[in-house]
Amino acid sequence: MPITRKPLEIPPEVARQFAADMLAYHAERDDNRRDRIAVGARHMLLEHMPAGAKLRVSEVKEMFELML
Predict the structure, then answer these.
(1) Residue 19, pLDDT score
(2) Which of the 8 DSSP states describes residue 1?
(3) Distance CA 20, CA 15 (A)
(4) How is residue 48 annotated by DSSP?
(5) 20: pLDDT strictly greater than 70
(6) For residue 42, which of 30, 28, 53, 31 has the smallest C-alpha distance?
(7) CB of 21 within 8 A of CB of 33?
(8) What is the C-alpha to C-alpha distance for residues 4 and 23, in angstroms, rounded to an integer?
(9) Residue-level pLDDT at 9
(10) 30: left (phi > 0), else alpha (psi -120 to 50), else beta?
(11) Half-sphere exposure of 10 (CA within 13 A, CB side)
(12) Who has the most CB within 10 Å: 9, 20, 30, 34?
């Protein structure tokens, strides 16, 4: 029996900030600064995920790549 997940409910302002972070990530050429942007986006998303949920920085970076 497959496990169904409840969809995340992310407030519009958080979604807008995530989009802004994605654009900043792609505009930045310094790898350390790009990492800091991804870490900030990860923390922001984790605040709206169920307790105990896991989200890796590499997964945030992958989302940034897929969404551009």
Answers:
(1) 96
(2) -
(3) 9
(4) T
(5) yes
(6) 53
(7) no
(8) 31
(9) 83
(10) beta
(11) 17
(12) 34
